[in-house]
Amino acid sequence: MSMTPAITGSSKESEARRVSIRAAIVKRALIACIAGLVGPATIAPAHEGGRRLEKETSPYLLDHVHDEIEWHPWGAADDKRLILVSIGRFGLQSLRRIENEFFALLDPGEDLNRRLVCIKVDYDERPDVAAAAYAVARLSRETPVTIPRAPLVLLLLPDGRPVWGAPLAPESRARLLLLVRDHENEAGRRALCSRAMGITAATREILAPAPGQREIDATIVSSLTKRVMENARRPRAGATFRPAHGALRLMLGEHLRSNPAMAQELLLKITRSGLHDQIGGGFHHEAIDENGRLPRFEKRLGDNALLAWALSRSHRKAANPLLRQAALNTLAWARREMLDPNAGFTAALDAETDGVEGGYYLWTRNEILGALGRDKTARLFGSYELGPRGVLYRRDAPADASDLASELREQRNRRLRPSADTRVFADANGLMISALAAASRAFDTKADRDLARRVARSVLERLGPPASLRHGARGAVALGPAFLTDHAALSLGLLDLHEATNESRWLNMARDLIDEAIRRFLDARGGFFETDAAHEPVVIRMKSFEDGEGLSGNGAMALALHRLAYFTGETRYDDLALRTVSAFYGRLEADPASATALIAAAAELVAPPATPSPIAGAHPSRTERGPVTARVALSRISARRGETFEARISLAIAKPWSVVAAQSESKDLASLIVAILDPELTVGSPNYPLPVTIEPAFDEKPLAVHAGHIAIVAPLRVPDSAPPGERPVRVRVRYQLCDRHECRPPESVVLETPFFIPE
Questions:
Q1: What is the 3-state secondary structure (H, E, C) of 279-304?
Q2: E-strand spans in 103-211?
Q3: Neighbours of 740 (CB within 10 A)
Q4: Alpha carbon distance 275, 269 (integer Å)
């Protein structure tokens, strides 16, 4: 923890005292550093009577400005008092009463301020602190109870080492008071120090496990995938109902171990459940029952982005009208209620309205009758069911009353709306860019593609270039430095946007973000840290690999690295992605359901087709010829008769060279041409990138060219008459290299990649 000294006094005595205290602090910090426990610590000022949270950006912290307890932001401490950390977040306002009761009975006011340094942490602004608190709470629990990720309370020694953590409950309060009293005598302090050493070591093993000793291969991936699928079929009894985003990504992958039918089944369950806002679109964060009938009503951007992506991806696998409608309605909700004037998506909507949890979303039968009348109400309940708490669910019935749901939305718009968390986070916006890009491809919606471009431009302008990316912003005020998850999720969004638009600027920006993440977060022993030196340190520099609410940092990073390798043809990114997954082999083997984003990345990297070994042919899938590196990859390595897929041809052209643009007007030079050499496949028109122009010395007219990294996409379809079996897909690429001074003779390469048509 980083803490800032501020000791008042102008006399020589106070100056000597200041020097003495600083020397003691440095000595203690050095001892702690040598022990490998915490980073160097400094001291925050003692009580000054001010409200220390007034300048914070977090709405959760701002909600506690007027508490009796004098809350500090993260980083405060002194060398004698224990540190009490309270972790919460916006959107859990129904739990504010629990917080009030817990801390009121804990002995509030001056006595608590005197005995402890009290800190408030926003889960969304410091996910690394929240993860450490969650790990410590799991280690501290004395009975096998479910631990929420927020709200939590954490107790630290003055040097920042954890002693204990727990959810807010009466038994937690009693335990906390005992620990505080223990610290007030020497024997107790020694016992707490010994306890902290054990908790710190165990926390390190949870948050930053030693890298795995075995490389992930196809056999391991097959076993892990099977276990994830079995876990998804049989969720734990009594567990909360929350979408398994990593598992859905695994099921919807392009490898042959994927299971799109199962993904569609899970998505239908989610879409019909109380998690889905049947009236206004979008999804609530989670439900407190295993069937999704009793939602917690906050809506979070990240959840909705990941579900919109999965719904769109599922539609491309097998069209379903209900899932199509859910995807489009979710994006319409986000555009309508979450988009700020600067084209950034805001973070969340509160669960409460005027003190009533879910008040904005709940209905009575009489309210519906009054809004629609008897006949329309009868038709509505042919498609929907009203639960005992007033939550609408979708029936498993072919009847469609979505037009009546729209009428109810107009009525609901007259109600008092939930409050909003207006912060714009890099990771959640990256996921929403990805969702918009996926929808634009699945449903051919130009508006989604255009909005994805706008959001990408806005986020990059507001949160900074890759070298100084910020975690988020509230209005014009930037939040702290970006985490690994920010780089990874934003990169995934930009790569999907590049795929949807074929515009190289998004690919180049994604590459810059990934390269910067490699520089800042990579652990040479394996995997990526979530934080770098710009973040105030916690107990341990963690590695995010458990999916939690969304995709883990390392899971998203491995997926982004593989996608970047696919677009650029640079295998070094795939090599790093595989090393990243392999670093967590032990944890994947122990509990694959907790890290499905990593397994999804592994499946894309190494899962083999359910066919014999690859075709031995004369032509490679990747070749380097002078300044040009060419590569072909298929969006699917297997497709049945009647199904469609894409061939993506990537060219990396070294400076200062470029290739003459496709459909160039020059009569003397050879335009770029891509041809699929397979008479049995139905081939659509290749989609070439937009050209740029150069001013050649050998011609008065500008020359249209393609430069840098480009991709050409050719849509393909397997005819109904195609014979089953393994076959190569061959591609010929003709191009002519030019720079400003000369052009080389035209060249041609043939690339080949295996493809399988099942029975």
A1: CCCCECCEECCCCCCCEECCEEHHHH
A2: 116-122, 152-156, 162-167
A3: 12
A4: 10
pLDDT > 90: percent of the chain: 54
Per residue in 28-49, pLDDT (tens digit) is 433 333 233 333 333 344 444 3
User: Taking the model in full, what pTM does it have?
Assistant: 0.81
Q: Which residue has the higher pLDDT, 199 or 24?
A: 199
User: d(Cα 125, Cα 488) in Å, to the nearest integer?
Assistant: 17
- Separation CA 434–CA 440 (nearest Å): 10
Q: Which amino acid is at 390?
A: G
575, two tokens? 């090599």
In the DSSP assignment, the letter for residue 198 is H
pLDDT of 282 strictly over 90: yes
Residue 372 host element (H or E): helix 365-372
DSSP type of residue 325: H
CB 570, CB 515: distance < 8 Å:
no
Cis peptide before 151 (omega within 30 of 0): yes
Residue 392, C-beta contacts closer than 8 angstroms, at least 6 positions apart: 274, 278, 279, 363, 384, 385, 386
**Rounded distance, CA 446 to CA 464, Å?**
27
Phi, psi of 25 (to 5 degrees): -65, -45
What phi and psi values does residue 622 have, to the nearest 5 degrees? -145, 135
Q: How far is 31 from 25, CA to CA, in rounded Å?
A: 10
pLDDT digits (tens, 9 = 90+) for 545-561: 999 888 999 999 999 99
Q: How far apart are CA 675 and CA 656, in angstroms?
A: 26
Q: Report pLDDT digits (tens) over 493-522.
A: 999 999 888 788 999 999 999 999 999 999
pLDDT in tens, 86-114: 999 887 666 777 788 888 777 655 677 88
Single-letter amino acid code for the residue at 587: R
**737 contacts 626 by C-beta, under 8 angstroms:** yes
Residue 705, both tokens: 């060219």
Please report the beta strands in 455-580, taking only residues with DSSP state E, as ranges in sequence order: 472-474, 477-478
Tell me which H or E stretch contains 747.
Answer: strand 747-757
Residue pair 354/391 in contact by the 8 Å Cβ criterion: no
Quote the crossing angle between the two packed helices 426-443 and 484-501, to the nearest 10°.
20
